[in-house]
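User: Reviewer 2 asked us to show a designed sequence for the structure in our supplementary figure. I'm pasting the structure tokens here. Could you produce the per-position amino acids so we can include them in the response letter?
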């Protein structure tokens, strides 16, 4: 498959229909507070950027991605995580949900 994010239709549908639900469900299944992703827009709003897009990475999303990489021994760096989150925020969350 050219785009592995489409391997799980349930995750793709959830991301399209209710992206915040996907984020909360992913964080919860990882063992963190269900509402944690809801802090990302607040943090982005305080820095002048919206919903994880722009010159900064959303801190909750970045921490979650780094934690997923660490838990599953996936190679990469914080810089890689920031670039992926900045380029395709939704795809990064779909990827984390599949892990």
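Assistant: Here is a per-position design you can include in the supplement:
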């Amino acid at each position: 498959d050219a785009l592995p994010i489409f391997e799980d239709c349930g995750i793709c549908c959830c991301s399209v229909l209710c992206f915040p639900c996907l984020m909360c469900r992913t964080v919860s299944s990882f063992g963190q507070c269900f509402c944690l992703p809801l802090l990302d827009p607040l943090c982005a709003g305080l820095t002048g950027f919206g919903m994880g897009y722009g010159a900064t990475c959303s801190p909750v999303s970045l921490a979650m991605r780094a934690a997923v990489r660490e838990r599953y021994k996936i190679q990469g760096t914080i810089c890689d995580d920031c670039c992926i989150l900045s380029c395709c925020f939704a795809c990064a969350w779909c990827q984390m949900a599949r892990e």
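For the response letter, you might also mention the following. Residues 24 and 34 are 5 Å apart (CA to CA). The chain has six helices and no strands.
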